[in-house]
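Q: I'm building a small set of examples for a reading group on sequence design. Run inverse folding on the following structure and report the sequence directly after it, with nothing in between.
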């Protein structure tokens, strides 16, 4: 579904050329190999999109190994891992899509306890607004919140 959503937006913009896609299976090493293979046939990469930080990490390693300066490429992932937050803060990634799994688990448990104790239950909790920061973070936002390092490592 995420891939289809990316493609729907990208394909609607004729000025965007998707030169390759690779499957990372939410794994850094698989993504490193996939991007290494992609770079064999495609020497000009301007953007790296991924729906998982682990995949972005592996692809970023391949780009660095091939001599790319990540600060000159639009790189983003999804998940808000500690590694993604650090890479975004360092200027290597343009944005990090943040997830807050510890906060999400805490809020879910709170609703279970509410249900068991007869208190009002919030049936839906918006994962994009539940954390201490907006879901889409760039370097400026992260620099303004140096205490935030991410809630998980991927």
């Amino acid at each position: 579904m995420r891939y289809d959503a990316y493609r729907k937006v990208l394909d609607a913009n004729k000025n965007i050329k998707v030169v390759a896609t690779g499957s990372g299976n939410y794994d850094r090493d698989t993504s490193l190999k996939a991007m290494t293979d992609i770079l064999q046939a495609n020497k000009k990469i301007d953007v790296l999109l991924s729906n998982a930080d682990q995949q972005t990490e592996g692809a970023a390693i391949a780009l660095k190994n091939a001599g790319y300066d990540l600060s000159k490429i639009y790189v983003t992932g999804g998940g808000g891992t500690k590694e993604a937050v650090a890479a975004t803060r360092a200027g290597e990634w343009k944005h990090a899509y943040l997830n807050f799994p510890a906060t999400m688990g805490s809020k879910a448990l709170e609703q279970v306890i509410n249900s068991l104790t007869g208190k009002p239950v919030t049936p839906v909790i918006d994962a994009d607004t539940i954390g201490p920061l907006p879901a889409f973070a760039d370097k400026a936002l992260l620099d303004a919140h140096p205490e935030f390092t991410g809630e998980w490592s991927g």
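The beta strands are 47-49, 74-79, 95-98, 136-137.
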